[in-house]
């Protein structure tokens, strides 16, 4: 399997964000907070798993710090999303995720990766 994170997998539409935030279901892992919603309406679905990454300006004033954290979260998701995608395709479901970095300190990639692995396992159990 190729490890890609394509444009189709990025959560962009306002309607998708509205549905996601209205549900208010979340999973916490270390410094990550993942808000999720299963089975989006078919007109907004472009991939089995649609994801948005957030590092808030309130916590990180410098854009370079926010971008660094989002890049690390994106890479951790990209490397470990395969089992989740396989489970979603098998069950014919889709999921939208809003992954928020929930800390004021910048953590290493290995720590973020460990939290991401744990979150993705939790989501697979909820299917």
Characteristics:
127 residues; alpha+beta; 4-stranded mixed sheet; 44% helix
What Rg, in angstroms, do the CA atoms define? 14 Å
Low-confidence stretches: none
Q: Main sheet: which strands, in order across?
A: 1-2-4-3
Multimeric state: single chain
Distance from first to last alpha carbon:
22 Å
* Estimated share of beta-strand residues: 15-25%
Main β sheet profile: 4 strands, mixed
Could you say which overall geometry the principal axes of the C-alpha atoms support?
globular
Query: What percent of residues adopt helix (DSSP H or I)?
Result: 40-55%
Average pLDDT number:
88
Counting DSSP H or I runs of 4 or more residues, the number of helices is 4
Q: Order of SSEs, N→C? A: HEEEHHEH
Q: What structural category arises from helix and sheet content?
A: alpha+beta
DSSP strand tally: 4
